[in-house]
Amino acid sequence: MGLGSIRIRVVTNRDEILSLEHEEKAVHLAFRPSDRDLFSLVKTCPGIEILQLPASSYEGLSKFIKMFLTSSGIHLVKGDVSGHWHDLNNYFVIPSYVLEKIKELEVQGRTEKEIIEEITNLRKISPDMVLHLLHSSFLTSCPERPGMNNINRF
């Protein structure tokens, strides 16, 4: 069984947070969220595992909110969803071939730096996201594994 694609829900404004699906596991906020927005996101999507923010928004987060998100089991990732058109699709998709390539490079014994460089050249994915994927359960194809392997895959 091969690896599936990963869908990241792109949220362009705070008004969309309350209308998110309860099961969302990966979210990109394309606006600068307030603490209230982040609390609302965690309440609306209690199983969220990855929160991606543009670098400027990430740097603006307070230590408290970073600790809150981390203690809630949410991995913060810095980066953008380059080339995504929200008008056409609410999701930015990391295709299965990217996950397979990360796994292949890891098996070959490549360093994190080499893997990040090759993957960011292959597809416009932030270095932080590549690093997260490299160390996450996304690279296993075990169907019985909990979390994002089963929920947000095509």
TrEMBL record:
InterPro entries: DUF1699. It comes from Methanosarcina acetivorans (strain ATCC 35395 / DSM 2834 / JCM 12185 / C2A). This is Ribosomal protein S6. It holds the Pfam family DUF1699.
